[in-house]
Structures are given as structure tokens and as C-alpha cells.
Amino acid sequence: MGRIAIYPGTFDPLTNGHLDVIRRGLSLFDTLIVAVACNERKQPLFDVGERVAMIERATRGMKGVRVDRFDGLLVGYARRQRAAALIRGLRAVSDFEYELQMALMNRKLNPKVEAIFLMPSQQYTYLNSSVVKEIARMGGPVKDLVPPFVAAMLKRKLG
Q1: Residues annotated catalytic, as ranges
Q2: CATH code (residue 102)
Q3: What residues contact residue 79 under an 8 Å CB cut-off, 6+ apart?
Q4: Is 41's pLDDT higher than 90?
Q5: Alpha helix (H) residue ranges in the chain
Q6: Does the structure show a pLDDT above 70 at 40?
Q7: Could you tell me if 6 and 83 are in contact, meaning their C-beta atoms sit under 8 angstroms apart?
Q8: What is the pLDDT of residues 129-140, one digit of tens each?
Q9: In terms of residue numbers, what domain contains 74?
Q10: How many domains does the chain have?
């Protein structure tokens, strides 16, 4: 089975920055589970099924990647999956404070799961799903920010 890591997130939508973190995480672990949060309180643009399908399509052919959905506490999900680590991407110092708080709480709840912070490639440090959705809403180009099929899905969803 090998060492398992989980890369959790909303992925609404999946960006090229997410794919960069997936590739980096996969180079460190035998299995990387991309775990899509079912948190509807965030009012996602895409439903969880669409987000899972998006990631499955983008990661097709990446050996060791699994895509799943989860609800509830991430550390409970990690325990059930026998994961050794949780991977989070850090783009800027502003991400660090929140991610540190979450990592420390997760460690308190499940000390067997490590937090791994990965820096994205330089061209993705500014990129996040909220920015992508805002650009798409305003009719701007997102082709360099997301996989081409995600750009088409955004266009269909937002008109």
C-alpha cells in the first residue's frame, strides 16, 4: 500500500496551482488522495460530484492519485484512510497563519498525521479558486489558470 497523503480542499474549481501541488505531493508519497470537501456552507459554484469529476479527469494517468469526497473532520477521514500526512499548499504568508492553526489543531486531534506544507511553482503563487471564479464571472480569460475543460465548465456555468 505504501505511504499515503491526503490533499484536502474545496477545489471549486480545480486550478493549475492545485495540479502543481498534486504533482509535488505525488513525488513524496506512494498514494495521494485528493479529498474534496462536501462543505456546502461555502456555497460552491460546482457541486461535489462535478468537482470530483473535474479532478479525476485532470489527474487521469497520474499513477498513485485517488480522488474521493469527505465530510466531517479531516483527521477522522485521514485515520480511516490510514494517511501519514495532510498536504496543504502555501502561496503567501497570509496562508500560513490559518494553515498553522489548522495543522496544530489537527495534530491535537490526531498526532499520528503530519502536516506537510508545499509551496507552489512561482507562476501559481497568486492563483486561487476565488480569483479564477471572479475573472470568469467578469468574462476574463482563465485559460492559463485552469485546465482547458475547466475553463469550458466555468463558461457554461457562468453563462
Answers
A1: 18, 42, 91, 129
A2: 3.40.50.620
A3: 110, 112, 113
A4: no
A5: 16-26, 48-59, 74-81, 93-109, 129-137, 148-158
A6: no
A7: yes
A8: 999 999 999 999
A9: 4-125
A10: 1
Residue 148 counted as domain residue: no
pTM of the entire structure?
0.94
- Checking 127-130 for CB contacts under 8 A at 24+ apart, the result is 127/15, 127/16, 127/17, 127/91, 128/15, 128/17, 128/91, 129/10, 129/11, 129/12, 129/13, 129/14, 129/15
> With the CA atoms of 2, 81, 37 and 95 taken in that order, what torsion angle do they form, in degrees rounded to the nearest 10?
-60
99 within a domain of the structure (yes/no): yes
Higher pLDDT pick, 91 / 7: 7
Does residue 14 lie in a domain region? yes
Report the amino acid identity of residue 121: S
Cell representation of residue 69: 469526497
Residue 44 near residue 51, CB atoms below 8 Å: yes
Q: Give the tens place of pLDDT for each residue, 96-121.
A: 888 999 999 999 999 999 999 998 88
Residue 139: inside a domain? no
